[in-house]
Each structure stands twice: as structure tokens, then as C-alpha cells.
Amino acid sequence: MRIALIGYGKMGKSIEQIARTRGHQISYIIDQDNHSDIQKISPDNTDIAIEFSQPSSAFDNITTLLSNKVKTMAGTTGWLDRYDEVKALCTRTNGTFLYASNYSVGVNLFFELNEWLAKKMSQLEDFVPEMVEIHHTEKKDAPSGTAITLAEGIQKNDPSVKKWVNESSEDHHTLGIISKREANVPGTHTVTYRSPLETIEITHVAHDRKVFAEGVIKVAEWATNQTGILSIREFLNNQS
Ligand SMILES: NC(=O)C1=CN([C@@H]2O[C@H](COP(=O)(O)OP(=O)(O)OC[C@H]3O[C@@H](n4cnc5c(N)ncnc54)[C@H](OP(=O)(O)O)[C@@H]3O)[C@@H](O)[C@H]2O)C=CC1
Ligand SMILES: O=C(O)C1=N[C@H](C(=O)O)C[C@H](O)C1
């Protein structure tokens, strides 16, 4: 597989390492200082582009790639207010696009556990939900993309949770998401339901960001043979 890497920071480098180990070629490496070279990427030289840059550049990078008919996967968080525009462009151009807030297989199982628990908790009135996400101090966005996916999973399954806020909340109908930044933490997410008499808590801890990069390459190997707007859940459901 010929992979173009868009964004060559912590994730771009980790993805490159795993891609090469699995026998893939890197067709382009695009970073801040050569970002206009993104226009050179085409289906003639690249099977899939993988975008891990920063919240302020992801939308432009993704739309450039899709406009040039390049299959695109994105992991950058913090730009999702424009997701519908990307979806519309992908449909208009008969393209292929996949965004996941978290490429760890374990986190994606955790998403399912979170949704199951939220449905159960929707029947109990005493419990106040809360979330804490902890990441390294270089992280640019808050709350994390993973925390937003978890919050959406809770809202979908517990209609009494009307919204989320990026601070603590004592209100049963408002999910408080607390973001903490600590040195060298790859990503920790905890969902808690607290009542006066008991607490239920589920946690996912990433020990190394390689877990995201490995997921990215496995999903990319699948996505190169697919078309349309894809999801990581679809990928996981197709694993034997
Ligand atoms: N979905 C998932 O599973 C995961 C998602 N992430 C997300 O991925 C993103 C990147 O994370 P990470 O690698 O840790 O961040 P880094 O800051 O380490 O790397 C980002 C890189 O993007 C470069 N960049 C800046 N502007 C552009 C541009 N216009 N075009 C191309 N590259 C550009 C930066 O260059 P410079 O340094 O010169 O500015 C930097 O090298 C974040 O949004 C993070 O939240 C992270 C881990 C897992
Ligand atoms: O910035 C990071 O590092 C991470 N970002 C993603 C997010 O915002 O959820 C995924 C992972 O938690 C690491």
C-alpha cells in the first residue's frame, strides 16, 4: 500500500514506523513547512492518505485530498463542527473517507461498553454522570475527540442527558467533562455514575500511542478496498 502521511508529528512518525514494518511504502510526508505539496498527492501515486495534523489545518487538508480523489482517513480531532461539509464533499466526489476520534481497538470496545451502560443508567434517576479525560500537555483541543464520542454515546442512549459541558456539573441532565493535562499521558478516559450511596466507573487507559498507530494501519489496509463514508465500527464488524 502507498500511504501519504499528512502531519508528521508524534502520530505521523509512529504511523510511519508501523506502516514500514508491515511492508507499506510512504509516498509523501506533508508537514507544516511543505504543506502546499499536498496538491501533488493523487490516486496515481497514493492508495490512501492519513491525516494527523492539528485542529486548525485538518479541514483544509481533508477537503484538498478528497477534491483530488484521494482516499482519506483522518484522526485529527477538534474540527468536527465541519464534519457534515466533508461528508457532503465525499458524497459529491464519489470519494472515500473515514474519521475516527480514536483508532485503538480497545477504545472502540469501550465505546460499546459506554453505550450499553448509558442505556442501563437511563432507567435510574439517582446517578449523576461525569467524565474525566487526561492527556499530555501538548494537546491542542479540549475536550478530547474521544470524550466527545463518549458523550454522544451517552446522549444517544440516555435521553435525560440533554447536553455536555467542558467543566464539572452537578446537574443530572448535563454531562460534565473534565479535561486534565499532565506530562506524557497518551490518553485516559473515565466515565463515572455517582449516586449518594454508590459509584460505577469505567476507564480506558492507553499506555502507549502505538496503540492508535497500529489501529490506523489495520483500518487503512481495510479502507483501501472500500468506497464511501466509512466508520471504524464497520471495520470492526467485518473482522473475522
Ligand atoms: N484518532 C486518534 O486515534 C488519535 C488522534 N490524535 C489527534 O491527532 C492530531 C495530531 O496528534 P499528534 O501527532 O500527537 O500532534 P503533533 O503536534 O505531534 O503533530 C502534528 C503535526 O502536524 C503538523 N502540521 C501543522 N500544520 C500542518 C498542516 N497545515 N499540514 C500538515 N501538517 C501540519 C505539525 O507541524 P508543526 O509542528 O511544524 O506545527 C506537526 O508536525 C491531534 O488532533 C490529536 O488529537 C492523536 C492520537 C490518536
Ligand atoms: O491528542 C492525543 O494525543 C489524542 N487525541 C485523541 C482524542 O482527542 O481523543 C485520541 C487519543 O486520546 C490521543
Automatic annotation (TrEMBL):
Top-level lineage group: Bacteria
Entry EC no(s): 1.17.1.8
Catalytic activity: (S)-2,3,4,5-tetrahydrodipicolinate + NADP(+) + H2O = (2S,4S)-4-hydroxy-2,3,4,5-tetrahydrodipicolinate + NADPH + H(+); (S)-2,3,4,5-tetrahydrodipicolinate + NAD(+) + H2O = (2S,4S)-4-hydroxy-2,3,4,5-tetrahydrodipicolinate + NADH + H(+)
Domain Dihydrodipicolinate reductase C-terminal: 106-236
Pathway: Amino-acid biosynthesis; L-lysine biosynthesis via DAP pathway; (S)-tetrahydrodipicolinate from L-aspartate: step 4/4
Top enzyme category: oxidoreductase
Keyword Oxidoreductase on entry: yes
One matching Pfam family: DapB_C
Segments forming domain Dihydrodipicolinate reductase N-terminal: 1-103
Family as reported in the entry's similarity comment: Belongs to the DapB family.
Protein name stated in the entry: 4-hydroxy-tetrahydrodipicolinate reductase
Organism: Marinoscillum luteum
Gene name of the record: dapB
